[in-house]
Amino acid sequence: MLSIKNLQARIDDKQILNGINLEIKPGEVHAIMGPNGSGKSTLASVLAGREEYEVLAGEVNFLGKNLLEMAPEERAREGVFLAFQYPVEIPGVSTINFMKTAVNQIREARGQQTLDAVSFLGLMKEKMKLVEIDQSLLNRALNEGFSGGEKKRNEIFQMAMLEPKLAILDETDSGLDIDALKIVSNGVNKLRNKSNAVIVVTHYQRLLDYIVPDFVHVLYKGKIVKSGTKELALELEAKGYDWIKDQAAVV
Amino acid sequence: MSEKNSTAEVIAAIEKNLDVTSPVVQLRKEALSDLSEKGLPGNKSEEYKHTPLTRLLEKNFSLSQSNAPSNGIDPTPAAIPFVEGNTVVFINGKYAADHSRIVSPASEITILSLRDALLNHQELVLPFLGKIADHKTDAFTAWNTAAFVDGVFIHVPDNKTVELPILVYHIHDVQSGQVISATRNLVVVGKNSEVSILEKFDSMGSYNGFSTLVSEVAVAENAGVTWYSIQNDKGNRYQFEFKQFQQARSSRVNTFTFTLDGKAIRNNLQLSLDGEGIDSHMHGLYLVGKDTLADNHTVVDHKQPNSFSNELYKGIIEDSAKGVFNGKIFVRPNAQKTNAFQANRNILLTDKASINTKPQLEIWADDVKCSHGCTSGQLDEEALFYLQTRGINKDTARAMMLYAFAGELLDTIKHPGIKEYIDTLISERLHKNF
After folding, report:
1. Architecture label for domain A2-250
2. How far apart are CA A143 and CA A145, in angstroms?
3. How far is B424 from chain A (nearest CA, A)?
4. What ipTM was estimated for this complex?
5. A53 phi and psi, to 5 degrees?
6. Minimum distance, in Å, between the CA of residue B26 and any CA atom of chain A
7. Are B266 and B384 contained in the same domain?
8. Do B396 and B358 fall into the same domain?
9. B140: how many CB neighbours lie within 10 A of its CB?
10. pLDDT number for residue B1
């Protein structure tokens, strides 16, 4: 589904990704872990299409298409979804109106029929249950005055509404207490199926107890230096990142 | 200095047409003398330094030329759809009785052309006319006072709620030549009464038009006045407007000024809070492009204690349009427990768009709550990106955010038909397709 070959990217003068190679197949969950500054969020940003990052080399193939050539909205329409680490507040734009516009623009691009108000509300109610999000939050302006946990739940609610093929969760667990973590993870798990895939970017192993990965990759200085299964995450939790850094230094 | 010559030219043109039999001839002569003394504002004028109105007039008008006669126009295209109200139409500053229609009962309200009121109701007019709007300190106000031809006179007795709004249409017929018009409104609202007024400006034809418009509004104890101004003239309209409200205790004034088009529009809006317990709100949106100049100068004068005023003006400026905002708040020494708030927020969409904004607070009382804030910037890029990652294309994302920004000014509009109309205007301008 997703094929990343030798991806290199920089922001301003600083090169952050130094050759990422990654293959993701449908149905899989891949965790990307690593110490601060390793490039985890940069990878998520580049995949989502943030303009500030300049791609220097490499290719990213998504469902047979060149992802790097697409504008962010085109990537979304192809089925890529980024759950932001710090979701922005947009005063005056109600979550419901925003969601309806997004859903319908994506449906239109895919040649599907757009939803009228009633059908849309029906879809919304169905998905609200998944992440236990309250209608009152959705009537308000997007993320305005939301707590950290509410913002993250709103991200997963949007994921449920847009049904992406590839979801990238950028440090979704940061700032969440254990209860919020469980609700968010539960939502993500319910959305998983054989044809979609998830990239979980996280610093801590804790999230991976709930969203169990098929593969774990450790990012260090812009490269994947080690890959393994969920046991690797447990090893990192026990030993920290220093042994990875030492190993990488030796190489 | 060219302003001196222009001032003289304007004065000569007014004197030529002065009706010495008019009951207000003394007022006009006084105003002419003030105009001569003050002179039209030049480059060094503090109040007009970002809005070179005199120079624009010199460049685009022949100041002593009479208006070409209007052969009659059909004002229906200018009418606001689906809003029931009293309709008062002025064409080139002259009352058009044929196109006007008063529907509210006479027991509720008197609506006349000012000329008519001066002839038949002097006792209602003379105590107020020329006494609320100061014509000594501003040359355009003096010009208007000396030269006004007509306008709307509205009188609401005590204890009346006027159900239907008064819709005043100011139309320039500029099909055969330039027009310079001077319109004077006088509104007197009795105790405990409520009334809504809407003014709309349009041109038919492609010659230039300049209008001065002065509105004097006396708001008695516990009365409420809502005033909408729709400045969306797609023709070549240059305008100077001065609205002054004199408010008695416990009264409420709500103004909404929407500047969407025109060549150069200068709005002077002044609220004189002459009592305690007053609650007033001023709202403005200037959503301008091409080379439009939109200038809002506001003054809120808290003369007594315990009153509340709030100002919210927002600007969306694109192409090479220019916005100017100057908000003065005066809190007099005895006006303790005043609450006065002001906010001016601007979004500049292009490199050539510009905004000049200046709050001016002069506070002489010591137990008050006052605040002001101005911001100016571009659209939040992070928010735009967020919307794009949800599949919304960049144009729609921009429109959503701009509409959200402008939308705040519609929130407190009580009349659903007027709110809907203005919403439609804004949506169309922002290419709202969501």
Report:
1. 3-Layer(aba) Sandwich (3.40)
2. 6
3. 17
4. 0.94
5. -95, 130
6. 52
7. no
8. no
9. 28
10. 60
**Residue B69 CB partners (closer than 8 Å, separation 6+):** B176
What is the count of structural domains for chain B? Answer: 2
Residues on chain B bordering chain A, Cβ-to-Cβ distance under 8 angstroms: 380, 382-383, 385-394, 396, 400-401, 403-405, 407-408, 434
**pLDDT reported for residue A251:** 58
Min Cα distance A23 → chain B (Å) is: 22
Same domain? B363 vs B411: no
Q: Are B398 and B258 in a shared domain? A: no
Chains A, B: CB contacts within 8 A come to 75
Whether residues A76 and B401 touch (CB distance < 8 A) is answered with no
Indicate yes or no: CB of B386 within 8 angstroms of CB of A75: no
For residue B408, what is the DSSP state?
G
Domain that holds residue B424: 380-434
Nearest chain A Cα distance for residue B339, angstroms: 25
Residues B285 and B170 in one domain: yes
> Could you tell me if B434 and B351 lie in one domain?
no
B334 pLDDT tier (thresholds 50, 70, 90) = very high
Where in chain A are the domains?
Answer: 2-250
Per the CB < 8 Å rule, is B392 touching A105? yes
Are the C-beta atoms of A90 and A142 separated by less than 8 Å? yes
Q: Confidence band (pLDDT; 50, 70, 90) for A175?
A: confident
The 10s digit of each residue's pLDDT in B261-305 is 999 999 999 999 999 999 999 999 999 999 999 999 999 999 999
Condensed to tens digits (0 to 9), the pLDDT of residues B87-116 reads 999 999 999 999 999 999 999 999 999 999
Nearest to A102 among B380, B383, B392 (CB): B392
The count of other CB atoms within 10 Å of the CB of residue A83 is 27
